[in-house]
Every structure is written in structure tokens, then in C-alpha cells.
Amino acid sequence: MGVVTPPKQDRSRATRQKLLQSAVACLAERGWSGSTVAVVAEHAGVSRGATQHHFPTREDLFTAAVEYVAEERSEALRALRPEGRAQAVAALVDLYTGPLFRAALHLWVAASNEPQLGERVTELEARVGRETHRIAVRLLGADESRPGVRETVQGLLDMARGLGLANLLTDDAARRDRVVAEWADIVDRVLD
Amino acid sequence: MGVVTPPKQDRSRATRQKLLQSAVACLAERGWSGSTVAVVAEHAGVSRGATQHHFPTREDLFTAAVEYVAEERSEALRALRPEGRAQAVAALVDLYTGPLFRAALHLWVAASNEPQLGERVTELEARVGRETHRIAVRLLGADESRPGVRETVQGLLDMARGLGLANLLTDDAARRDRVVAEWADIVDRVLD
């Protein structure tokens, strides 16, 4: 059997995905100021022309990249069937300690000083935040009709975000594991 | 009575403080890439020569600035006599929602991509973190000899840090107040 050339549409989609993944990797490793469109195109092995075709502006590329990876992470979380709340809490905290969070953090911080980027990132953050909250409620088996439950889940996600930030400069895994174990226990009791 | 000229040492100290406060303000408003030494000197109304005399490098200026303001905030917190834990939790969360946190966040994120800055900021963050933890334990009246209490306090500070991050792009005060009220209640029950 000979090599099958994928249809044009599939190749275009593959190029787009390579660019999105490279954009997130560059953002996580080099920050916003080090992540130009040219750097991402080179990292992905895609021509400048093809890059510009998929993403006309730098803002288009990076907001799409963070959204794409966030959506991938959400899908993985939606498929998760945790055995108990401790596992659910650990999975939620994991969302904030990998390259995606690092990339998103660089994008947020850059957006706080660049009005052009700010509006789009704010909108993206709100959308991803709502979806993460919905997933958290399901994973934790939380009944939001009870008073305080919504805020308990939100606080847990805020804690996860703070743990992600604490992991930015040093490997904070050992301390984080102890904090997560304790708070998983507390949240379990509060939600019951 | 004529105008009294302050002694040289006092003037030097006042210049230093003006530079430190300007550095934090610039960092919070313009981010790391927008905060050069020249920008800070102009903001403070101090000559380049005097600025260089106090802070030979950009890294010296900004790490000193974040440390100075963190120390000022710590002093204010140490002087606080909260009426109950809800007030203590609110005061701790306030640490992470003002210009100091915003400035520190820009410095941390820049440090994560700049090795020269990274080492100093990591050391500074560890020192400020330990002091904040000590203050939190005292304000909350937490007994760290009991198992889990240390991690409960740490998780609360992680949550406060995450709330600070959530406040970066939009005014998150209304949601934050509800989360803080609920979590203050949870922490109060856990620590008793």
C-alpha cells in the first residue's frame, strides 16, 4: 500500500493544531514578550504565510491557542470518573500546574497592560472559568441548590489557581500535595 | 522660624522611598517590560544619577521595591487586632488584591523567564511567604501543633493568591466577597 496523502482540509487542520500547540509551548517557556508570531511559526515548522493565513494577528493566535488547549483539558476532565472527592480535587488542581496554566498566566498578565489583548482575554477567561466551574461541580458531586455550595466550589478553584501561581518559580509539588490532601478532606466534609 | 533642611541622611532615605514606591506603582500599572529604571526615575522625580546610586541595577530596584512594600503591608497586618476570624480572613485576602500583589505578580512572571531575576525573586518570595504565613497563624489564632492546621492555613493563603489573580483583568470584588464569607466560615469551623 502506498502512502495516502491526507485531504487538504485535514492537512490545514493539522497545521492549525501544530501552530496552536507551539503557541502554548512558546508562551509557557518564553513568556509573552518572547513569543512573537515568527517564533511560533518556526517552532511549529510552518511558513509565515501559512501562519498568517490561519491567524491574521498575534492576538488571534494566542487567544485561540489558550482556548484550544483549555478545551482539550476540559474534555479530558469531562471524561473523568473520579473515585471519590480526593481524586476529583487532585484532578482540578492539576489543571493549574501544567504548561497550560503557565501559558494562560503569561497571557493574562500581558493582557492586564495591553488594552487590545485585554478585552479578548477577559472574555476568554470568563468562558473557560464558567466551564471549569461546571465541570468541578459535576466531579465533586456538589449540590449547588444548597446555600454556600457554589462559593465553596469557587473557593476551591481559587485555591487551585493560587497553588498554580505558587508553582511558577519553584517546584512546589511536595507542599501542594499536603495542602490538597487536607483541603480535599475539608471540602468533602463541607459538601456532605 | 525658617525652613529646616532635613539632614542629608534623611533626604537620602526619602529619595530611596520615593524610588521604591514609584517602582511598585510602575510595575503594577505598566508591567515588567514597561518598567525601566528611567521610567521609575522620572515617575519619582529623581535624577538618573541618584537612582543609580541607590540601585545599581534594574533587578536591585524592583526586588527592593516589592520587598519594601511587602514589609510595609506585613507591619500593618502585625499591628491588626481582628475581631474574629472573618475579619482576619478578609485582611489576609486584601493582601492579594491591591497594587502590591499586582506588582509582585508582574515581577514573578518576568522572573519565570529571566534567570538573572529568577533567583532573587524566588528567594524574596520564599521570605515574604514565610512571614505572611506566620502573620496568618497569629491573626487566625491557629494552633499549628494540631495535625492539618498548617495545611489549612496554607490552603487559605493559596486561595487568597488565586483570588488576587482572578482580580487581575476585571473587578472581581462582588464574587470575592461571597467566596471569602463562605471560606471564612469553613476555616473558622475547621480551626475550632
TrEMBL record, chains A, B:
Pfam families: TetR_N
Domain HTH tetR-type, first and last residues per copy: 13-73
DNA-binding residues (ranges): 36-55
Species of the source: Streptomyces beihaiensis
Keyword Transcription attributed: no
Lineage of origin: Bacteria, Bacillati, Actinomycetota, Actinomycetes, Kitasatosporales
This protein's UniProt keywords: DNA-binding
Protein name: TetR/AcrR family transcriptional regulator
InterPro entries, alphabetized: Homeodomain-like_sf, HTH-type_TetR-like_transc_reg, HTH_TetR
